[in-house]
Request: fold
Amino acid sequence: MPVVNINLGQRTYPVIIGPNVLRRFGWKQLGLVRGGRLFVLYDAQVYALHAARIESQLKSSPHPMVEMVVPMGERSKSPTVLDKIYAFLFDEGLSRSDFILACGGGVTSDLVGYAAATALRGVRWGIVSTTLLGMVDAAIGGKTGINHPRGKNLIGSFWQPAFVLCDTSFLKTLPVRQLIAGLGEVTKYGGLIGGKMLALIDKYFVQNDIYHEKLLSELIYFSASYKANIVVKDERESGLRMLLNLGHTFSHAIENAAGYGKLLHGEAVILGLLAAVEMSCRLKPQRTKHLADYGRIINQMICLIPYRKINYEKTLTAMQLDKKRAGTVHRFVLLDKPGHPFIADNINLRLVALSLESALKAYKSEGGRCVPNPDR
Reply:
């Protein structure tokens, strides 16, 4: 049972990866609840599919349990839904000795984590991550928050969980589209890590089983390990941690321009990665040969994304509120070659526009061409 430790002193916590880790997890060993109650908040889809299973494991705890179901999807990361969570917590008499458990994907951990960070100025919490995107990225590192009409994740806080459970058996019921969205973040890590990670991604794509649990577990472990190493060096994204945003300056703006919920986050990340590779090569054409294989992997994923009309000008406007800018200077995470990311600023705006235009053109040409059965 692979474990990645996020080593943050007294706030160190494990990311536990593997099948049925929920059943095998020792709740008492991590001091799940300190004499209080357990507040369990489910993503609506997870509740429908897995509530009975999760409840059966949690009932082994001697602590009282109360539950709430939150809406699924990016649009739930809003002040309206957050206020409903606060109302539930306070109506139930939340105290600092209680524990909040988020069960769902990245949207759920972002939303519930922010409620945990801000209710009573901070309540202990943990995550049962049920999506690939959550397991490789969103659940790890303590970033929590909600969206604002002006941009994605503009309201939030850093609040580390007590643990993250990545139970890979949940992935068997994950819709194909959400799995592919998770692969967007996995592909991001391929660019950051290079070498063995890209070889593993290639190996995954050439076999016929998109739900191959062993390969997915390896991809999750590589991704989580890389992110853990970055987070312990730069917990609050003052420098090094910005590397984890490869492609995201573009992708967050694309999500906004498409309309939240029209594209899944990981789908927008794939488009953002394509724009970042394009910009990297435009800045230094010699990089083209080094990034050719990585670009090939990204391009083969474009046809797996359902096509949505994205306004080019609106995307450029949305980029003006990106959180990674320093003052009025925009920062982009780019690649010299796989495994060698760097942060660039003072990029000519025409170059930004051309890189975005190129990515959106490829998406318009190939988007949705080989989308698998959406009902799976």
User: Anything to note?
Assistant: The domain at 176-366 is CATH 1.20.1090.10 (Dehydroquinate synthase-like, alpha domain). The mean pLDDT is 91. The chain has two domains: 3-173, 176-366.
